[in-house]
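Researcher: We're teaching a course module on how sequence relates to structure. For the next exercise, students receive a sequence and then see the predicted structure as tokens, so they can try to spot secondary structure elements on their own. Here is the exercise chain.
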Amino acid sequence: NACAEDQIPVVYAAISDPAAADLTGLDYVTGTSDALNTQFILDMMLAINPDVKTVGLLYSNSEANSTTPIAEAKAYLDEKGIAYVEGTGNTNDEIMSAAANMVGKADAVFTPTDNVVMAAAAAVSETLTEAGIPFYTGADSFALNGAFVGYGVDYVQLGEATADMVAELLCEGKTTADLPYQTFDNGIVTINTETCEALGLDLDTVKEAFKPYCTEIVEVTTAENFS
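Model: And here is the predicted structure for the students to work with:
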């Protein structure tokens, strides 16, 4: 393409897996990644319920964002000797059916930064919460739609870092070779307090259990607007 031919720097933002998107190893490309810290989410899950026997992995097999974190989750659970059941789909109905199928099988459910599941998040969250199953997810937007926990990067910080990279390229004479792509692990946890109560969990106890794995805890209620 023209950028490659002319070596015009390309800066991407919030790409969950730059390698899978074929954005690494290119001299003229850099940017920021919102890659999920899968281990921290599962650590928090076990901090609340160390006796988890089976974890549900709910994701879309057509969502590139889910490939790496689901593989990481499987490796983590295998290492811990914890079983898992998988539920996949590519439409709202398929995702909701997959979630319903986990009732009675999973003690907790994990979904990464999956846009397909996000579209059905409200219904999925309701189904799992009514069954007493905590729903751990890879973005605060899930918690705003009823999931118990959302975990992810601070997108304000990510946006500022992306803008800084552009400024360094345009104003400071740096090249993309000087600026390797950045990932962020600032440990922001979003807890839906209504869901926490519905699950019969004490909010203060939950927050205390999560403290070692995060730098900030945000409390939300379902359908609260983004500010």
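Model: If you want an answer key for the exercise: The first helix runs from residue 2 to 6. The longest strand covers residues 54-59.
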